[in-house]
Specification:
mainly alpha, 66% helix, globular, membrane
Length: 332
């Protein structure tokens, strides 16, 4: 194991990440089963039809609110959490410099990336911030989207009550459309997140840093005779080349399919006056939407696999500890 695999997060954070991922995936599956009920008829049937899928979506929505309340409370009163919270906040001076230097680096006018932009480049944990400026942006965007999704989801819980409150059907449906559009935008971000962390050449097929807490992995884990972080010893898996191309194609196809489906499917989340017709009769549109859902299933599988690897690693650590204790008692 190289220092690239060293976790940066606590056990609570890694567990929260896994629970949040599971809940968000359930929200996506249930929400899009309703949104694209023609194209995703099999997913709708798998979740118990209209009644079952709506119940699952609402349960997952309440779970998301509970997870958010827990995390905000934990960030405020948890031990040492305020310092980590400050690490997530933008550092306007250094983050701006990192962005400018990244642009120069891409244009060939800089020799290396700024330290605040490094995340997967093989540096030790002390040489890079907890999150790069890109990571901070992802956290900020994801947080805003989740908050808006929760608020709009609660508002459209009962559409008749919402229409009565706003006195017009148009205003009520605007909230429904806004909720759906947020879901589409968030879907694109989650797909890119799956691709970035599932197909990165240094971590393929799963990035263990998101699952194994830093307290369980000593940072001096690699042999003392070898200098550096260990990135020099990494070798690409034989399957990475075709997997990354297939995964990239699926992500692009899924995003295009969902975006076009949002326009072609009448009235949700795009208002009916903007739709141009279509539906499940368009085989390419149906394939694109289903490919998008399969990418989400891939993300769910990778999340489960990451937790399996974490459990396996913890078992190996316990076995090594028992073996070391047995050897020590034998020497006595």
């Amino acid at each position: 194991m190289t220092s690239l695999d060293h976790g940066k997060f606590t056990k609570t954070t890694t567990v929260f990440h896994s629970l949040l991922a599971l809940d968000v995936f359930l929200l996506f599956f249930s929400g899009y089963a309703v949104m694209f009920n023609d194209e995703l008829w099999w997913l709708l049937a798998l979740m118990g039809g209209n009644t079952g899928v709506l119940a699952l979506h609402r349960i997952a929505g309440f779970a998301l609110i509970a997870l958010t309340v827990f995390w905000v409370t934990f960030m405020i009163i948890g031990p040492g959490r305020r310092s980590n919270f400050r690490e997530v906040l933008p550092d306007l001076r250094n983050d701006t410099r990192a962005f400018v230097q990244d642009v120069k680096f891409l244009l060939g006018r800089a020799d290396e990336r700024h330290p605040h932009a490094r995340q997967f480049a093989g540096y030790t944990a002390d040489e890079v911030p907890l999150l790069s400026y890109v990571g901070k942006g992802v956290v900020f965007i994801f947080t805003v989207e989740l908050v808006l999704l929760m608020i709009s989801g609660l508002l459209i819980w009962s559409k008749p009550a919402l229409m009565q409150f706003f006195q017009t059907k148009t205003a009520a449906m605007a909230f429904v459309g806004f909720h759906g559009l947020l879901g589409v935008v968030m879907l694109m971000g989650v797909m890119f997140h799956i691709f970035e962390h599932g197909f990165h050449p240094a971590f393929y097929p799963v990035e263990l840093k998101a699952f194994i807490p830093k307290s369980d992995i000593p940072h001096a884990d690699h042999d003392g005779e070898h200098e550096g972080t260990g990135i020099e010893r990494l070798r690409l898996r034989p399957s990475w080349n075709w997997a990354v191309n297939l995964g990239g194609l699926a992500v692009v196809g899924g995003i295009v399919g969902v975006l076009l489906g949002s326009i072609y499917d009448s009235g949700y989340p795009v208002p009916g006056t903007l739709t141009v017709g279509g539906g499940p009769t368009n085989v390419f549109l149906t394939i694109g939407i289903n490919v998008g859902i399969l990418v989400l299933f891939l993300g769910l599988v990778l999340s489960v696999y990451g937790n399996v690897l974490r459990s396996r690693y913890e078992r190996q650590v316990r076995e090594r500890g028992r073996a070391a204790a047995t050897d020590g008692s034998g020497d006595d």
